[in-house]
Amino acid sequence: MTSTFLDAGVTVRTGRTLPFGATVVPGGVNFSVYSTGVTAMTLVLFRRGEREPWLELPFPDCYRMGGVFAMTVSGVDIDDLEYGYRADGPWDPADGHRFDPGIILSDPYAKSIGGLETWGAERLGTDRYPYRSRVVRDDFDWEGDRPLGIPRADLVIYELHVRGFTRHPSSGVGAPGTYAGLIEKIPYLKSLGVNCVELMPVFEFDENATDRFDPATGGKLVNYWGYNTIGFFAPKASYATADPVRELKNVVKHLHRAGIEVVLDVVVNHTAEGNELGPTISFRGLDNRTYYMLDPSGGYHNFSGTGNTLNCNNPVVRGFVLDCLRYWAAEFHIDGFRFDLAAILGRAPDGTPLPNPPLLESLAHDPVLRDCKLIAEAWDAGGLYQVGSFPNYCRWSEWNGHYRDTVRRFIKGDMGVTGELATRFVGSPDLYGSRGPAASVNFVTAHDGFTLRDLVSYNEKHNEANGEGNRDGDNANHSWNCGHEGPTDDPAVLRLRDRQVRNALLLLLTSQGVPMLLSGDEIGRTQHGNNNAYCHDELSWLDWNLTESQGQLVRFVRNAIALRRAHPVLRGRSHLWGDGEFPEVSWHGVRAWSPDWSAHSRLLAVMLHRDRDCVYVAANSYWEPQELELPAAPHGMVWHRFADTSADAPDDICEPGSEPRLDDQATVPVGARSVLVLTAGGTR
C-alpha cells in the first residue's frame, strides 16, 4: 500500500520491520518502531528548529507486523528532518500501561538526538518535544581502521571524561571539552604509556536534568558524569563542534592510530525517565511494561538508585541492548564496554538474581561482540555484590572492588591486611582462579569516589556543595589525610602524601591483572574532598598546569607503566605458581623466604619470576624503615633498583633498562611507608 501527501510532497509505503530505527534506503527513509499494547502509532515529522510538527503520518494497520510498525517515507530532506512518535493505548499504570498520545516520543533507536547541542543550555519549558530524533548518514571514511585486539593482560586503562579532560583553559586545545579536544591530547596519552581509554558515558544525556543547587553559591548543579541516558545509539552532541557521529568516530580512528583502544562506559541498567514522577521521553510511552521492571502495583523497581530499572532479561529489551552494543562495535569500531551497575543485568523481571542470565550469556557469545572486552561493575544499588561471582561465561572481566579496598587499607597502615594484599597483588586467584588474572580490573580510584590526591589528603568526604547535606557519597573510603585534613603547607605532611600517592600507583602497576588509572591522578588532581562529584562541572576539569608543577609525578607514572610493558612477568595471562626451585611467585619478609602473615604485619615482599624475567616488590606500610634480606636472583642474575618511593625525585624511579645495580646483593633497606621495586638482570 502506497499513499501520497501532495501538500507535503511526501510519499509513504509499507516499510521493512528490521532494522529498528530510522534507516536511509533508496528513495527515502525507513522508520521501524516496536510497541505491544498500543492501539495506534503515528510518525511525527519536524523540520529542524521548528517547534511545531511539519507532518503527522499515522501507521495504517497494514503497516504493522506483530508488534512492529514500519513505514518508508520518500520526499524528505534528511538533513532538515527530525522525527518522533505518538503512541496511543490504555492509560492503566496499575497494569503497567502509560500510553499518552499527547506526548511525542523519541525513537529508542535514534542515531542522533537534537536539542542538546550546547552544553548547559537551558531548554524552553514550553517545548513539548525536547529530545528530537534525527536521521544519520553512514558515509564516514575509516581509512582502513580496525579494532586493535590488544590482549587483555597487556592493557593499561585510563578512565576519562571527554568534557573534563580538556575543558580547563590550561588545556590549550582548539575546542575545549570536545571530541576534537581529546584528539589533540592523544600525544600526551601516548607519552604516558596507556594503551586503552575508558570513556565515561558518551551516549546522549541531558546535563540539565537535575533539581539541585549549590547551597553556597546558589548555582544550578548539573548531571556532569552522564549516567542518565537519553539516547542509547546517539553520541553526546555537546561534546562535538558540529557532527557528533562523525567526530566521535574520528576520536576512535585517531586513538587507534596511536595504538590506544577505546572502551565505552555504558549504562544499560536504567534510563533518564526515572520513576513515575519522571519525564516520559521514550520507553515509558512506547511500552512501559516491556521495558521496565515493575512491581505488582505497577510501580518501578529501583535497583539502579535512579528511579527505574530496565527489564534487561525480557527478550525484547535483551534484543535492544544487543542491537545497541553491536552498533557501537560495528559502526564506531569500539574495542570494549564497561557496564555500569552490571549486577542488574543478571536480575529477572521481578528483580531476583538469575543463575544463568540470558542477557549476560548473549553478550558473552554474540558473534559481532566476540572480540570486544566486556567489563562488569559487578554490583548494583539494590545490594547485589558479585565481585568474583559475576556470571562470566569465561568472557567477562570485573572492576575488582576488593583490590581497591585492600590497597587503600594497606597503604594507610591498617592491621590484618597484608595477607589479603598478597592475594590481590597476584591477580585475586581466590576470585578469578579459573579465568586468569586479566579478569581482575585493578584500581585504587575511579570517577566515583576520591581522587588519588584526595585519598591521601582527607579522612572524611566533603560533599556539602552537592546540596544533600553531605549525606551522599560513600562513607567507607579507607582514606588517610597523613596528619592534616585538606590543604596544608606542612612540608612533612606534603612529602608523606606524595609518597603515599606513589605507593598506590606503584602497587597498582606491578600487580597481576589489568590496571586502571583515573584521569588526573598522574598530575595530582583534586576535588577538594568531594567523593561524589557527579553534579559538578568545573570542579572535575583537569588543570593542565599541573603537568608542569607535578612533572615528577607524571614522570613516575610514565616509568612505572614502561616497567610493566618491559616485563611480561607483570602481565600474566595465567596465575603464577608457587612451586619449584625458583617458583613463579614467592613470598618474603625481613628474612628471605619467610613472610610474616600475622595480623600485626605491615610488610609484604614478593618475587615474581617467569621465563627468566624477574621482579621483586617490597611494600612497607610501617612508619619505620626496615632492613630486608634479599632472596638470590635466579639464573645467576643480580638485583638492580628500579623504584624506591622513599627517595626524593628524580631518584625515586628509573627508566627501564637504566636501573643501577645494587652494591649489596644480600640485603636492602625499605623506607618507612614506601614501596621498593627491584629487577633482575645481568650476571654475577
From TrEMBL:
Chain segments carrying region Disordered: 462-484
Record-linked SMART domains: Aamy
Domain named Glycosyl hydrolase family 13 catalytic: residues: 159-564
UniProtKB keywords: Glycosidase, Hydrolase, Transit peptide
Pfam families: Alpha-amylase (PF00128), CBM_48 (PF02922), ISOA1-3_C (PF21156)
Biased composition (Basic and acidic residues): 462-475
Top-level taxon of the source organism: Bacteria
Keyword presence, ATP-binding: no
PANTHER family registered for this protein in UniProt: GLYCOGEN DEBRANCHING ENZYME
Homology family: Belongs to the glycosyl hydrolase 13 family.
Stated name of the protein: Glycogen debranching protein GlgX
